[in-house]
Amino acid sequence: MNARRPARFALIAPLLSITLITCGKQEETIVPVIPPPPPAVRQLAEAGDPSAQFAMAEYHVSDEDPTVMLRWLRASACQGYPLAQVSLGVLYDAGDSVPQDRISAYIWFSEAAQGEGDAVEMAADLNAAMADDERAFAQGLIRQGRSALIDCRLR
Predict the structure, then answer these.
(1) 90: closest CA among 61, 64, 119?
(2) Residues 6+ apart with CB under 8 A from 36
(3) Looking at residues 59-68, what average pLDDT do you find?
(4) Helix (H/G/I), strand (E/B), else coil: 63
(5) CB atoms < 10 A from the CB of 13, how many?
(6) What are the structural domains of the chain?
(7) Average pLDDT, the chain
(8) pLDDT at res. 134
């Protein structure tokens, strides 16, 4: 299989638990706490603002159940927010919180490439790793637009 690329965005980076070790003894685990977004951000997200929806997805990234995070992330990505599109592509590429799907990852990277420079490289890497039939299918979906994507139909 192709080599994994490191996640480049905050949404994809898992929250890290850091264990402090002094003289070989475990002292304490520090877990970062993400403060909830202000109520105005939630209101904007519910009203359809893609950047606020992405902020809500970031807030829910550490939830045990990824359902809420994916709902906000898909809502933002389907409206064309590049960071959400790249984040969704990375999740599909890695099979993290969603089934691993190189076609969906490629489509989201390609969509994001319009407004996010790193997405161009990520799409090119995946394009090179995909079989001809996978690539043709993905490019057909891209021509149909975002409404053809399962993520945008799930909303």
Answers:
(1) 119
(2) 59
(3) 93
(4) coil
(5) 12
(6) 37-154 (1.25.40.10)
(7) 82
(8) 92
Q: Could you tell me what percent of the chain has a pLDDT over 70?
A: 76
Please tell me whether the overall predicted TM-score, pTM, comes out greater than 0.90 for this model: no
With b meaning 16 or more CB within 10 Å and e meaning fewer, what string describes 78-110? Answer: bbebbbbbbbbbbbbbeeebbeebbbbbbbbbb
Is residue 5 pLDDT above 60, yes or no?
Answer: no
d(CA 9, CA 26): 30
**Residue 29, φ and ψ in degrees, nearest 5:** -110, 130
The DSSP element (H or E) to which 129 belongs, if any, is helix 117-129
Residue type at 43 in one-letter notation: Q
- Tell me the two tokens of residue 115: 């407004």
Closest to 85 (Cα-Cα) out of 60, 61, 120: 120
- Nearest Cα neighbor of 72 from 99, 49, 95 is 49
What is the gyration radius of the CA atoms in the chain, in angstroms? Answer: 17
Contact (Cβ atoms closer than 8 angstroms) between residue 54 and residue 84: yes
Are 85 and 77 spatial neighbours (Cβ–Cβ below 8 Å)? yes
In single-letter form, the type of residue at position 132 comes to D
Alpha helices in 3-113 (DSSP H): 39-46, 50-59, 67-78, 82-94, 102-112
Q: How far apart are the first and last CA of the chain?
A: 31
